[in-house]
Amino acid sequence: MKIAKIKIHYSLIFLLILSLFTGSFFKIVGIILSILIHEFSHYIFLRLFKVDVKNLELSIIGGILEINDKNISLSKRLVINFAGVISNLIIILLIKISGVKSLNYLLFYNLFIIIFNLIPIIPLDGFRILNDLLSSIYDDNYTFVIIKKIDFFCLFMMLIILLLLKIYGLFLIWCFLVVKYFKYNIDDKKIKNLYYLLKK
Fold first, then answer.
1. pLDDT tens for each residue of 119-178
2. Cα separation of 106 and 98, whole Å?
3. pLDDT tens-digit series, residues 1-12
4. Beta bridge mates, 56
5. Which residues sit opposite 139 in a β-bridge?
6. Phi, psi of 61 (to 5 degrees)
7. Pairing of strands 53-59, 5-8
8. Whole-prediction pTM value?
9. DSSP letters of 118-176?
10. Sign (positive/negative) of CA torsion 184, 132, 81, 53?
11. Is the CB of residue 148 less than 8 Å from the CB of residue 184?
12. How confident is the model at residue 200 (pLDDT cuts 50, 70, 90)?
């Protein structure tokens, strides 16, 4: 079985270095393990449905799996995209059952991953889920137009919420998402290719 290449985004390296100076290194490692479990859950079902995974990029918002597009059913695509969220739910349940209070930060972080990942912003799971659902109803061009507008609206609303609630700690993540958005929004062709890539 071919193993996907793993890439480490500079944002994650920056976070690890920062954690060394703030005394939160082991907590960050726990968070990274949660991310790995989340992405490995996607990976298991991708391989189960015989989808070729080219590489996995780990970043501060989680992981981004790059795949070779393959025509599989909507139900299978939804299973793949929801697998990560389900794995985070399992982690939450295991922490609650264990009763280890020192792991409570992981409980809240995994809950955050679930909520955050379901936002329809590229490259989050919510984006892929919405893209798959819309593609099953509309043609690819119309889906592209709709989801592009939703993506921009969600980014704008996230910024407003972060500023109103003064959650400046998540501003770095917002900046990362904006960079990802504009990286694939230089022209319609590039972003459309990415939508096809993540379409599954």
1. 998 888 999 899 889 988 988 788 888 888 899 899 999 999 999 988 877 887 888 788
2. 12
3. 455 577 777 777
4. 6, 65
5. none
6. -100, 0
7. parallel
8. 0.76
9. TS--TTSHHHHHHHHHHHTTS-HHHHHHHHHHHHHHHHHHHHHHHHHTT-GGGHHHHHH
10. negative
11. no
12. very low
Compute and round to an integer the Cα radius of gyration of the chain: 17
Q: 5: helix, coil or strand?
A: strand
3-state secondary structure of 95: helix
Dist CA 162 CA 158 (whole Å): 6
- Tell me how many degrees the CA angle 2-84-112 measures, rounded to the nearest 5: 140
Q: Kindly list the strands in the beta sheet with 53-59, ordered across the sheet, starting from the edge strand earlier in the chain.
A: 5-8, 53-59, 62-67
The whole-number average pLDDT for the span 76-80 is 90
Q: 80 with 46: CB under 8 angstroms?
A: yes
> DSSP readout, 54-73?
EEEEEETTEEEEEE------
Return d(Cα 22, Cα 41) in angstroms, integer: 31
Q: Report angle CA 153, 159, 163 to the nearest 5 degrees.
A: 145
Count CB neighbours of 161 within 10 A: 12
The Cβ of residue 72 has, within 10 Å, a number of other Cβ atoms equal to 16
